[in-house]
Amino acid sequence: MLKGKTALVTGSTSGIGLGVALALAREGANIILNGFGDVDGPKAEVAALGVKVGYHGADMSKPADIAAMVAYADAEFGGIDVLVNNAGIQHVAAVQDFPVEKWDAIIAINLSSAFHTTRLALPGMLKKNWGRILNIASVHGLVASAQKSAYVAAKHGLVGFTKSIALETATTGVTVNAICPGWVLTPLVQKQVDALAAKDGVDNDEAKRRLLAEKQPSLQFTTPDELGALAVFLCSDAAVNVRGQAWSMDGGWTAV
Ligand code: NAD
């Protein structure tokens, strides 16, 4: 379905981003990976699917890095057809204790980076009159939790940003949507499982059970594969009229 197209997935060396990148590659899309940590493993996993794979190490908190990554996509891949704004970080603390540099980093990486990638990639999509922008928001783009003020503010902002750009592109072949996962067991969430295990004096399995029981009625983690399948649907022709949505995949979290 996506043969000949190029997808840039930010923060795709791990977790949800890697799951989405693999799902798009299975549909034939060439993939540009981004993110920190091990790069060779994710690159090999994507390359095994028979598509062209590239990597750019842009720090998504830095607009100049983001511009360099989009220039790399233009030069090496002929532009970006599918943009997945996924890179994100978390920090958990009460607002009066929230480190200022963590607030700034979360707003930069989880929200402002999507502005920079979009403003730079959208003109190329409009020229081809085809494009897909998927913003990986969160249930926290729709509802709040205590101790996560920066994350909740950034993700609500990302959902609002999604709606604005969907309106700006409504008569074009470019669609813009957000995906709102509930708990997904990635390194970002494992840190919160570890904190809960330490606080309650329980083992890893019990901490996972308690974390789910608190918020996610299905009592099951959403998976990167499920999110990848949703991303593939949103890239399909059948989804051309899905515009400006914040699509939850949260085991019922926001149904309460
Ligand atoms: P993760 O920690 O597994 O992956 C995060 C990715 O972002 C990694 O590839 C990391 O290297 C990259 N990254 C972090 N800071 C970066 C920076 N400054 N520049 C470039 N790359 C950077 O986390 P995840 O759970 O897969 O999260 C991915 C996205 O999904 C995030 O936006 C997160 O907020 C969102 N999300 C996660 C969950 C969950 O339960 N895990 C739920 C809802 C939304």
Question: What does this protein structure show overall?
Answer:
By secondary structure, this protein is α/β, with parallel strands linked by helices. The protein folds into two domains: 6-182 and 223-250, Rossmann fold, CATH 3.40.50.720; 185-221, no CATH class. The protein contains eight helices and seven strands. The chain has helices spanning 15-26, 40-47, 63-77, 100-128, 149-168, 187-200, 204-215, 224-235, and strands at residues 6-9, 30-34, 53-56, 82-85, 131-136, 174-181, 246-249. Helix 5 (149-168) links the parallel strand 5 and strand 6 (174-181). Helix 1 (15-26) packs across helix 8 and helix 3 packs parallel to helix 4 (100-128). The mean pLDDT is 98. Nicotinamide-adenine-dinucleotide is lined by residues 11-17, 34-37, 59-61, 86-89, 109-110, 136, 138, 181, 183-184, 186-189. Residues 11-17, 34-37, 59-61, 86-89, 109-110, 136, 138, 181, 183-184, 186-189 line the site of nicotinamide-adenine-dinucleotide (NAD).
Summed up:
Helix content is 48%, strand content 14%. With 256 residues, it is α/β, with parallel strands linked by helices.
Which key features would you list for this structure?
alpha/beta; Rossmann fold; 2 domains; 7-stranded parallel β-sheet; 8 helices; 7 strands; 3-hydroxybutyrate dehydrogenase activity
Mean pLDDT: 98
Record the strand order, biggest sheet.
Answer: 3-2-1-4-5-6-7
User: What is the percentage of strand-forming residues?
Assistant: 5-15%
CATH class of the largest domain: Alpha Beta
Coarse structural class: alpha/beta
Instruction: Provide the number of structural domains.
Output: 2
* CA-CA gap between termini: 36 Å
Helix content: 40-55%
CATH architecture annotation of the largest domain: 3-Layer(aba) Sandwich
Low-confidence runs of at least 5 consecutive residues: none
- Stated plainly, the CATH topology of the largest domain is called Rossmann fold
What is the succession of H and E elements?
EHEHEHEHEHEHHHE
- What's the alpha carbon Rg, rounded to whole Å? 18 Å
> What is the molecular shape?
globular
Task: List the total number of helices.
Answer: 8
**Largest beta-sheet characterization:** 7 strands, parallel
Which cofactors or ions or other ligands sit in this model?
nicotinamide-adenine-dinucleotide
- Give the CATH superfamily of the largest domain: NAD(P)-binding Rossmann-like Domain
Count of DSSP strands:
7
